[in-house]
Amino acid sequence: MRKTIIGWAAALIYAGSAAAAPLPAPRRADQQQFLSLYKELVETNTSLSVGSCTLAAERMAARLKAAGFADSQLTLFADPEHPKEGGLVAVYPGTSTSVKPLLLIAHIDVVEAKREDWARDPFTLVEENGNFYARGAADDKAMAAVWIDSLIRFKQSGYRPQRTVKVALTCGEETNGAFNGAQWLAANRRDLIDAEFALNEGGGGSADDHGKVVGQALQVGEKTFANYVLETRNPGGHSSVPRPDNAIYQLAHALDRIEGHEFPLEFTDTTRTSFREGGAGRGDATGRAMVALAANPADKAAEAIVNKDPFLHSNLRTTCVATMLEAGHARNALPQRATANVNCRIFPGHSVTQIGDELAAIIADPGVTVTALAPLRPGPPPPPLDPKVLGPAKLLAKRYFPGVPVVPQMSNGYTDSTFLTAAGIPAYGVPGIWDDPDGDGVHGLDERISAASLLVGRDYLYDLVKAYAG
């Protein structure tokens, strides 16, 4: 999930603060070199069904070796039970032994893509109309390619940072319940990825319908992802003799109660700041309500206005929604069993177990079981609003995106930052690369990224890493 702020960026349209980001032409030699690397990574199929993250990691390691990296600076890893879901950790040494490293992380697995559904082969990179099309062109191989390319540029230029810079390419972010490389590294090779803080996906920007960048965000914290199965059972029987304890009706009543429940409004330091700063830049009724709510969370009139925006409503609380149903075994029989999946996005400060207990209390029917599905993800507190992280991102954005503020925000979605932050490595979703208003088809058909976003974002992120490392 490369971008989890699509709704947020759409909500924060800064009047008079859009900046065009023209693509330099003709392309520089270093950009051509980068695009070769990017093409190889994108065209390596890394879907769970038939692809191999391990192969993609090996190819990126070969790129680094060709640039002069020693074997000792490259660690290819794979769990023996998941041989095709491996990854890579690369290390570019810094000059200081006292300053902790910087970690750059990106997932290289992609969402499934069927050729018959796409206008183009999803695993052949195609450039058309100013865009690059392919599965993973944006999510998240754009960032993965930028991180590997940055290390190569460091090597080629002889750059000597104070901080050691590490890059981790991992698998498993896109598939719930599959092997997750970031989680594995945090649990088994914490030393390999040890860092003061990490840069990841989850932030970024959005452009308007004319291709102008209208917002940039630095992700600071995210919700916890959890699925719960609701289940009802009874003996069933012949449909000609209905009985009051119908499993489907019982489940439907439980879902009605969940639908009618509003989790309470909450703020973190990040969301309070984002509502205050983002709202101040809007100049409309919603913006004024955002500022008022940040100042006074008990302002019900302001909350009512903000809640009309689905993204902002969700950014203020835990949300739970039914996503799947299954019931009955025959058209002429009473149902013996009915189940529903309820997907929750949990506000920081609450555990998966706690929200499961709250769902059971909301349903208030002991005949409905509530079971949290594995894996049970950690729910770490959000990283701090650290000036040494926010400062360089904002300062550099003034040069690349003049007039466009960088707003800290909490993601309604989920990234591998969850595992890093839980392991004591605060992870931030960086600004830079941006999407069009429709989200660039990420997770859907004909995924794309604009050439301007990719190449300008690449330069922004390269300079940002140097700002943190130097």
Biggest sheet, strands in spatial order?
A: 1-2-6-3-7-17
Count of alpha/pi helices: 15
Mean pLDDT across the residues is: 94
Q: If you consult CATH, what is the topology of the largest domain?
A: Aminopeptidase
Q: What fraction of the residues are assigned to beta strands by DSSP?
A: 15-25%
Integer count of domains: 3
Question: Mind telling me the CATH class of the largest domain?
Answer: Alpha Beta
Would you give an account of this structure?
- The chain has helices spanning 6-11, 29-42, 53-66, 141-157, 181-188, 190-193, 247-259, 269-280, 285-295, 300-306, 310-315, 352-363, 387-400, 417-422, 451-469; strands at 74-77, 87-92, 102-107, 126-128, 131-133, 165-170, 197-200, 204-207, 213-222, 224-233, 237-238, 319-327, 333-334, 337-346, 369-372, 406-411, 427-429, 434-435, 448-450.
- Residues 4-10 and 13-17 have low confidence and may be disordered.
- The strands form 5 sheets. The chain has a 6-stranded mixed beta sheet. Strands 16-9-8-18 form a 4-stranded mixed beta sheet. Strands 12-14-10-15 form a 4-stranded antiparallel beta sheet, covered by helices on one side.
- 46% of the residues are buried.
- The chain is globular, with a radius of gyration of 23 Å.
- The protein folds into 3 domains: 6-222 and 381-469, Zn peptidases (Aminopeptidase), CATH 3.40.630.10; 224-263 and 318-380, Alpha-Beta Plaits, CATH 3.30.70; 264-309, no CATH class.
- It is of the alpha/beta class and 470 residues long.
- Strand 8 (204-207) and strand 9 (213-222) form a beta hairpin.
- The protein is built from 15 helices and 19 strands.
- Helix 2 (29-42) packs across helix 4 (141-157), helix 4 packs across helix 15 (451-469) and helix 9 (285-295) crosses helix 10 (300-306).
- It starts with 5 loop residues before the first helix and ends with a helix.
